[in-house]
Design goal:
The chain is mainly β and about 450 residues long. The chain is built from 5 helices and 40 strands. The chain has 3 domains: about 80 residues, no CATH class; about 240 residues, Pectate Lyase C-like (3 Solenoid), CATH 2.160.20; about 80 residues, Sandwich (Immunoglobulin-like).
Length: about 450
């Protein structure tokens, strides 16, 4: 029940209350439950005739639903449900939300009620919750002017084994998620994988402008921003914005383009001059940033105008980088960020995305090239490695699946059939992945 309660709070639901009830005769064996339980605990007292137990006809592990007036509306024995089973978890969360919706904010479901996420958003109102079942959704979504919670199910940020897979794929056709209509922290984006977005200017994965949503425990990867300059491959925070960025995995995002300039900023997160986000904050709320690419500020970039000597730093505690403290190439400018209590990625436990490399992808040569370039690969552990090439919009244009033995290898890519421009070479195994930028000039 603690798990469910925490997840409801993560969804922005603070008007559902849960309590535990136990007879005083069992208190001796419930010290841990009482002292450490997040939920409040009510002691039903024998000398008063166990009023709670008697009034509700209680049995062991009974679960009761009361409405806002305190009237009993439903009860069942929770023994039959396993909170670590995704189906049981989803059933229980949905049951709670259905009862809440009887005289409270509405619940919209994708794909039960709506096929597309944007359709659910179009039909939502402030305070509504949109629950999205596992699947791949090829959309670019916009929160419009709604303060809503968009939640991936089954979701739990506290138990990895019941986290579902809900993928928002931009297909290289635009920013995956746009929030730019004055939303506040009650607008929540929770538990999604956000990938393959593209914006010619700012925000390949997520664009936040003049808004302050909560971006919580998402995976944001393989998004691109930039054409002739740009920022925020993973997330761009523009205008007067004060978002909360908590517990996200942000990796393999890029800011790049066709212009020969140092004008590509913030591969992971770009922050505009007037914006003041909170990025991380505790061990459980820290973001993991790595393998993002830009000319300046691979992981984090903060824009500046005028004097920055007396700058107030952006709060960014307990985030995870490849090295701690991070290098200036990764976080720019270092004096613009409050990076206290940062962590090395090496110490992230049970993280399947952050593993020791099984190979090393070296820079391709020549680079720039026309029309052929060599791709050196040093393999540490024999196995199958996927070699993928993307265009500047994030579209996959070529892929090879090759078994490599230990040692050094050299691949050749012939780009005769492709136009001039910037391409991303990505090598990926079950253990790791690396990327390189290649420039084709004809």
């Amino acid at each position: 029940m603690n798990l469910v309660y925490n997840d409801l709070l993560s969804m922005g639901i603070d008007d559902v209350q849960m309590i535990g009830v136990g007879k005083d005769e069992y208190n001796g064996s419930l010290d841990g439950m009482i002292d450490q339980n997040i939920l409040p605990w009510v002691e039903d007292i024998e000398e008063e005739g166990y009023p709670v137990w008697a009034d509700y006809d209680a049995v062991q592990r009974s679960t009761y639903f009361l409405d806002r007036q305190g009237e009993l509306v439903y009860q069942f024995n929770i023994t039959t449900l396993d909170p670590e089973n995704p189906d049981d978890y989803s059933y229980f969360i949905n049951l709670i939300l259905d009862f809440r919706a009887n005289n409270g904010p509405n619940v919209l479901r994708v794909s039960e009620d709506y096929i597309m996420i944007q359709s659910a958003i179009d039909n939502s109102s402030d305070g509504d919750i949109i629950l999205v079942e596992p699947g791949i959704y090829n959309e670019q979504i916009n929160f419009l002017d709604k303060n809503i919670s968009l939640i991936a199910l089954p979701y739990s940020g506290y138990e990895d084994n019941i986290t579902g897979s809900v993928i928002l794929d931009g297909g290289g056709q635009g920013t995956v998620v746009t929030i730019n209509n004055g939303q506040d922290q009650s607008s929540i984006l929770l538990g999604f994988q956000i990938q393959n977005g593209f914006n010619q200017n700012y925000g390949g994965g997520i664009l936040i402008e003049d808004s302050s949503p909560t971006i919580d425990r998402n995976t944001i990867n393989n998004n691109i921003a930039g054409s002739c300059g740009g920022g925020g491959g993973g997330i761009a925070i523009l205008g007067t914005s004060y978002p909360y960025i908590f517990g996200n995995k942000i990796f393999d995002n890029s800011v790049l383009g066709d212009c020969d300039c140092i004008c590509y900023f913030g591969g992971g997160i770009y922050v505009d001059t007037l914006s003041w986000p909170i990025i991380g904050g505790s061990v459980t709320l820290g973001n993991i940033l790595y393998d993002n690419y830009a000319d300046t500020g691979n992981q984090l970039y903060r824009s500046s105008e005028g004097d920055t000597i007396t700058w107030t730093r952006i709060y960014a505690h307990h985030n995870y980088f490849e090295s701690c403290p991070p290098e200036p190439v990764d976080v720019y400018p270092l004096h613009g960020w409050d990076l206290e209590n940062c962590h090395s990625i090496d110490f992230v436990e049970n993280d399947q995305l952050v593993l020791s490399n099984s190979f090393h992808l070296k820079p391709n040569y020549p680079n720039p090239f026309n029309p052929m370039t060599n791709i050196p690969l040093s393999v540490i552990n024999s196995g199958i490695i996927d070699i993928m090439i993307y265009d500047v919009r994030g579209r996959l244009i070529e892929q090879r699946n090759i078994f490599f033995k230990n040692g050094d290898h050299l691949l050749t890519w012939n780009a005769q059939d492709f136009p001039s421009g910037i391409y991303i070479i990505k090598a990926k195994s079950k253990m790791s992945y690396e990327t390189q930028k290649a420039i084709l000039l004809k």
